[in-house]
Amino acid sequence: MDNVIIMPYHPKYAEQTVAMWRKSKEEAIGQEDIHSFENHVHFLKEILVEKYKIELALMNEEVVGIIVYHVSEINQLYIHVDYQGMGIGNRLLAIAKERSKGKLSLYTFQKNKKAQRFYEKQGFKIVSKGHQNEEKLPDFKYEWISQD
To answer: Which keywords fit this entry according to its UniProt record (predicted)?
Structure first.
């Protein structure tokens, strides 16, 4: 999508980002977020920005995607429900892969079949199963290792 701009996170987009993130996650796992909207904004603005790089995908100043990552892990990757399947996730993931040390891990909920298909197409493989998340839902740990 040529009209999608990828840019580093800026706090002016915090509320819009969290609204998109929550809607996308709710659609993916079929339950509302366990945290309040305000706590989620605080998590983004104060906690994630300290530990991770964050990139946003914008279309006409609307947040349509987010990736939260560092050199060995993807912490979050969400695409607006109306913009999934358009290559935005591919572009965001490519940035994390490029800036990685050649290996990335991430978790996704077992019920999130769309995410599993996406990550597997991107070369990720399931390395373990568990449920070490706040939602107490079964999840998969995925890993990607560069072929270079």
So the answer is: Transferase
Angstrom CA distances, 5 to 59, 69, 93, 147, stand at 6, 18, 14, 28
How does residue 1 score in pLDDT terms, banded at 50, 70 and 90? low
The residues facing 7 across adjacent strands are: 56
61 contact partners, CB below 8 Å, separation of at least 6: none
- Residue 144 and residue 104: Cα distance in Å, rounded? 5
Q: Are 148 and 66 in contact (CB under 8 A)?
A: no
What is the spatial distance between Cα 11 and Cα 127, in angstroms, rounded to a whole number?
34
Domains detected in the chain? 4-145 (3.40.630.30)
Give the integer Cα–Cα distance in Å for 58 and 115: 20
Query: Rounded to 5 degrees, what angle do the CA atoms 129, 133, 139 make?
Result: 25
Which segments of 15-124 are extended strands (E)? 53-59, 62-70, 73-79, 103-109
Quick check: pTM over 0.90?
A: yes
Closest CA to 54 of 83, 146, 46, 125: 46
User: Could you tell me which residues come within 8 angstroms of residue 12 by beta carbon, excluding any fewer than 6 positions away?
Assistant: none
